[in-house]
Design goal:
By secondary structure, the chain is α/β, with parallel strands linked by helices. The chain is built from five helices and eight strands. The strands form two sheets. It has a six-stranded parallel sheet, with helices on both faces. Strands 6-7 form a two-stranded antiparallel ribbon.
């Protein structure tokens, strides 16, 4: 099996702010930690992505403590991409160029939030020609209010993201099945 990069999107302290509302998947960070540990054992590229928000009210602004990556990611990773857009491929340094220089043609995407930056990163990766694995249970999201005023719960939003991606943009898998398919 050829090496693939694990792209860990926006796993930042600011997403612990209660203002985000109800979050799904409390096991997300545990699953990401298991994936990162296995990637490190295999010597495969581990890419960490940090959202540097320019929005005045965001806890993810660079000057705030919420911008920092969660503690279990400190000291890890082969590359840190900083972005202010939704896709990790629109940050600095240039993720696509970095992967291409290393001959990496496959990526696995996990992180926060499922239906925003993770889904967008997976779509852009596919459009750039990467074979994409979306690790659904290693992502999490929050309830959202629709324009109609209806609240869409986080679990439903996650399922819609999986459906949006599956078969066209990515192979959607869970952590256990992905880890079980990796080389010994």
């Amino acid at each position: 099996m050829q090496a693939q990069a694990l792209i860990v999107v926006d796993v930042q302290a600011g997403f612990d702010d209660p203002a985000w509302g109800n979050r799904n998947n409390p096991a997300c960070e545990q699953n990401i930690a298991a994936l990162a540990a296995r990637w490190e054992q295999l010597g495969w590229p581990l890419v960490l992505v940090r959202h540097d928000s320019a929005e005045p009210q965001s806890p993810l602004r660079p000057e705030l403590p919420g911008n920092r990556l969660k503690d279990f990611l400190h000291g890890r990773g082969d590359l840190l991409v900083s972005k202010s857009a939704h896709s990790a491929f629109h940050g600095r340094p240039d993720l696509h160029g970095w992967l291409a220089e290393r001959g990496i043609t496959a990526v696995a995407v996990c992180g926060l939030t499922t239906n925003h930056c993770c889904e967008t990163t997976a779509r852009v990766a596919c459009d750039l020609g990467y074979r994409v694995t979306f690790v659904g249970d290693a992502t999490a999201t929050f309830d959202r209010r629709a324009p109609s005023g209806a609240v869409i719960d986080a679990d439903t939003l996650a399922q819609v993201s999986y459906a949006n991606l599956a078969g066209e943009f990515a192979e959607v898998r869970d952590t256990a099945s992905l880890l079980g398919s990796l080389p010994a």
